[in-house]
# Entry
Amino acid sequence: MGRSKLIGPLTASETKKKQQRHAWYQRNKELTKQRSADSKIRTQKWFKQEKSKHQCFNCSNTEFNQLGFYDLTLIYGPSLTKPEKINQVSEMVGRKSRVTIKKEIETRTCLCNHCWHTHYRHY
# Structure
């Protein structure tokens, strides 16, 4: 649920809690960084396992290094213009939660690099 948004100045108890959290982080900075790095590694391993369950939509290629999740409707809309930025699922690993990544995978099509470049080589 997270912390509620603060409106106005902090109360004395809120200020004390904020100082305590800051002091705890300063004492445990390395532990916090290590936990964060471990979490990122676990999410990367999970993503590799999820990716290995898929195959190319066109040619049924299952080669792990060649597979990518592309949202063809997002990348090339009705006007066939290339968007300014494409958010790849692999860019979400380490930044977003597994639930968010899983939902994004379900909305996209899995294509290998060869098929993607064959169909969209003019870009």
The first strand starts at residue 67 and ends at 70.
